[in-house]
Amino acid sequence: MPKSNSSAVKAAASAPKLVDATAKRPSDIFDSRGRTVPWIARTVHRLYDAQGQKLLDREGIPIAYWFYLRVLAERGEVNQLELSKRVGISSTTAVPALDALEKRGLVKRVLDPNDRRKYFVVLQYEGKRIVDDMLPDLTDLIAASLDGISQRDMRVFWKVMHQIETNLIQMGQGQTVID
Predict the structure, then answer these.
(1) How confident is the model at residue 178 (pLDDT cuts 50, 70, 90)?
(2) pLDDT at position 22, please?
(3) From CA 129, how far away is CA 99, in angstroms rounded?
(4) N or C: which end of the chain has fewer CB within 10 A?
(5) How many CA atoms, within 13 angstroms, populate the side-chain half-sphere of residue 133?
(6) What is the Cα Rg of the chain in Å?
């Protein structure tokens, strides 16, 4: 485990104290630069978004819209509320994104025959084409970002990430939709 530098020690000292008997040591919570798991996860996510956007610019697709297309490609027809949950966006924020995707002919909203207040979102041919064309390049980007990481380390990484996910879901009492 890397030793903490002075900024990490200061950050740990000023961080709220955990009172639970299972509380981790500050060196388990902070990396050598004083960052927490959510902080570095956010940093990595933003780096992926920036690199992914460079690829998606070929199709004129904002990275935020890619997630809608990707969920629809995987799940098929999804109701609008479920789609926004799976993308991790509020349903009110999803409306302008879906409007833009529908205007471009990438998705179509279809009235739910059982509940006229609800809509299903369906990926259209052009949306599927974009996913099919872009997914290999985006997958290659992710693969390249893992250069120098052994298969064993990746198995450990996935085990740790899945455990964190499980812990957070339990903390949220199962209210989070995970895709």
Answers:
(1) low
(2) 54
(3) 19
(4) N
(5) 12
(6) 20
Domains of the chain: which residue ranges? 1-35, 37-147, 151-179
CATH fold label, 37-147: Arc Repressor Mutant, subunit A (1.10.10)
- Determine how many CB atoms are found less than 10 A away from the CB of residue 86: 19
Nearest Cα residue to 130 out of 83, 73, 179, 88 = 73
* pTM for the predicted model, two decimal places: 0.76
DSSP string, 40-61: HHHHHHHHHHHHHHHHHTTTT-
pLDDT band at residue 19 using 50, 70 and 90 as cut-offs: very low
Residue with tokens 């957070």: 168
pLDDT digits (tens, 9 = 90+) for 52-92: 999 999 999 999 999 999 999 999 999 988 999 899 888 88
